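Worked example (supplementary).
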Amino acid sequence: MKNIFQSTSKLLVAATLVMGLGASSLMAEVKDKFTVSWTIYVGWMPWDYAQQKGIVDKWAKKYGIEIDLVQVNDYIESINQYTAGKFDGCLMTNMDALTIPAAGGVDSTALIMGDFSNGNDGIILKGKKNLADIKGQDVNLVELSVSHYLLARGLESVGLSERDVKVVNTSDADIVAAYSSNDVTALVPWNPQLSEIMTKKDANLVFDSSKIPGEIIDMLVINTEILKDNPKLAKALTGAWFEVMSLMKKGDTKALTFMAEASGTDLAGYKSQLKSTKMFYDPKEAVEFADSSALPNTMKKVSEFSFNHGLLGEGAPDAGFIGMEFPNGKRFGDPKNIKLRFIDTYVKMAAEGKL
Amino acid sequence: MKRFMNLKPSKVTAFFLGLLPFIIAGIFYIVASDLRLAENPNDKLLPSMASFSEAIDRMALTPSKRTGEILFIEDTSASLHRLGLGILISAVLAMLIGIPLGFIPFVRAGFSPFVAAFSMVPPMAILPILFIVFGMGEIAKVALIVIGVTPLIVRDLQQRVSEIPAEQFIKAQTLGGSSWSIVIRVILPQIFPRLLDSVRLTLGTAWIFLISAEAISATEGLGYRIFLVRRYMSMDVILPYVAWITFLAFLFDYLLKKLTYKLFPWYSAGKENA
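After joint prediction of all chains, the assembly is encoded as:
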């Protein structure tokens, strides 16, 4: 009987592993093939260009590895898949990196902070001109996202709190259509939806992310274990990224048109989105940003917001439950539970031309 | 004959055979979950039974810190309210449209092709129009269910009405029945149980539209909660909600079947003999 049970459970384990539910992919090891997921967003289109034009392959070959960039249509799903161990790296915002992989116990490292939102996220009121008028309104936004964070920061700036409004969770895909509905009077969209809604009647931008610069950061996140065992991956990705950055800095029309078309707009549309995105074209800027004292402060605010909304998990006793590490040894939160790390190691190498 | 096809399980055996796949699925889950948790104790993809019971305690037994209400009950009642209203409106509409379509040749000639075409329009693809017409509130969610489900029931009822033997109509006419009285006395009594049947079969579709509507824009509801906590991959909340939705759907299916049996014993009896 015992034998039957043992062999059955072995069979089950084997079958489980076959189904891919097992944890094997989470185990770090030295490997030479990597997958990184990406989603369409103005600050991430350079990755698509780098992949399509063979720039990623060129750098991967230089370090003797293979890197596959996989496009995922659903942003949250791509982060969830990364957290579940399906991808070695993934593109996400600083807040989502804290609340999804880090809160899910997956030690993650922000390898490249590529840009921050400098107007790409905003609060729109229909008919009203001042942010304070938002009091008492229903606000349509993607709940628990950076839009929600922006709303909280905006309300703070005019002495209001979230209790003064009612948040209505609205899918980002439908938020433009939602504006046309009569009962929708306040929204917090991101780009390209933001600029689309601004072209409509009575739409007033009353607050945007340029008023909280550097707080909504778009970054490339790599599983820390994998990074530790495979510095080649970090070098190749960083090298490819800044090669595209230098093209963009020069205003290479061909590259920009490619990115514009891949993201479903035209050159003019893409350029206007870039205007509200602070890209770090120069690796030196990226190093400066990573080393700045503003970064730990921002992450503290994000951590407090996340804690107040229950995003750090029900077991979290305070906002410092998940520890974070910054360049130069700065830290925030529980040093025994460090799950999110910001590093400047590889961008520095790029700045010094050592890649 | 001692062939495999002729062997029938006893009642007890049948019960356990029915239970077996559930048990296997359960064991499968526990093994996979243990494997992942051994690797990373904070893994959220396949939570342990203990985190499920914590999540259930938090959602279903403890009042929320922010609103003082029990989220699970709030979500369930909001969703059931929408679903019930949507189904009720769909059923009434389908009766009003389906019977004339199946019974009156002039109506059929005029509207049947349109209804057939309209029922093929995927409602999710014309969402922006629905938002403008119905707003973003409760009406929009009920409307999405109605638009998604009504055409299915209408087409089924139309078919059922046209299947009623012509002899019955001729007989009723020889007894002096008008078009109206034939609808009331001949068609309606026969079509009611078929309507219940049809509603039962479209319940699955109605749930899909309900969850989609709540995912698009809502402040409470079963679908709302699932899509909200998906943002930080709280499978410990999602999986019990999915189990609950499955149970509710199963329960309604069962109750409708029983109701049909109770109200129209002749209908079920006829089906068993057929």
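Two points are worth noting when inspecting this output. The first strand of chain B starts at residue 217 and ends at 218. The radius of gyration of chain B is 24 Å.
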